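Researcher: I'd like a structural prediction for the single chain below. Treat it as a standalone chain; there are no partners to consider.
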Amino acid sequence: MRRREGERGGEEEGEGAAAAAAGAEAEAGAATEAGTGAVGLLPLHEAVAGCKGALTRFLMAQGASVSAVSGLEGLTPLHIAARSGQLRMCRLLMLQAKP
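Model: Treating it as a single chain, here is the predicted structure.
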């Protein structure tokens, strides 16, 4: 059976997911080494602000707090996601929040 242009096979999709995870891990390492960004944001806050879902999930899996306050305005990652209209990111953060 022939594939249409733009379709991917199972192996290619798995490789793509592995590459995305590796990229997220590399970005997380760089962000963690830096501590906070130029405006005082923690790595999780920067991932959310940059709309980087894979990196956000990776950081949360590594124990990043979704309720941490960072930045000049005292924002949480959820505040950042809500301000920029990232509904899926808001949902992801709310599912990880602990009461």
